[in-house]
Specification:
- There is one protein chain.
- The protein has 119 residues and is α+β, with helices and mostly antiparallel strands.
- It has one domain: Vaccinia Virus protein VP39 (Rossmann fold), CATH 3.40.50.
- The protein contains five helices and three strands; from the N terminus they run βααβαααβ.
- The longest helix has 20 residues.
- InterPro entries: SAM-dependent_MTases_sf.
Length: 119
């Protein structure tokens, strides 16, 4: 009998929101006034749906990725403006700055790798 198994990487909240600057950054990044589930929140949702769950914290790789992505956009800004225009680049850069802040400066956002098997 085949076993239903899901594997995914997802952004996760690593700690409680401590101030309005962190909340504003998270709201901008999520594009809504909402919160981001923690590793434990995801585990509980999946277990309640009848899955056996394995969780791996991959926040360090998310920190590295968001920093590199931001740095690349800063370094290639002029080229990107020529290709996409100032408004588009400013919007993307704001998103990458916010992701870098959430992962690196605030320590609010990271990543989780989840394997969920139906039991």
């Amino acid at each position: 009998m085949p076993v239903l198994c899901r594997y995914f990487d997802e952004l996760c909240r690593l700690k409680d929101i401590e101030n309005t600057e962190e909340q504003a950054a998270l709201d901008f990044f999520l594009l809504c006034l909402n919160t981001l589930p923690t590793h434990l929140d995801y585990r509980m949702m999946l277990e309640e749906a009848g899955f056996e769950v394995t969780v791996q914290d991959i926040s360090d790789s998310y920190k590295e990725f968001t920093h590199k992505r931001w740095k690349k956009w800063v370094e290639q800004r002029e080229k990107s403006v020529r290709l996409y225009g100032e408004d588009m680049v400013q919007g993307w850069l704001k998103l990458y700055v916010t992701a870098r802040k959430l992962c690196n400066e605030f320590g609010l956002m990271g990543g989780g790798r989840f394997v969920a098997r139906k039991v």
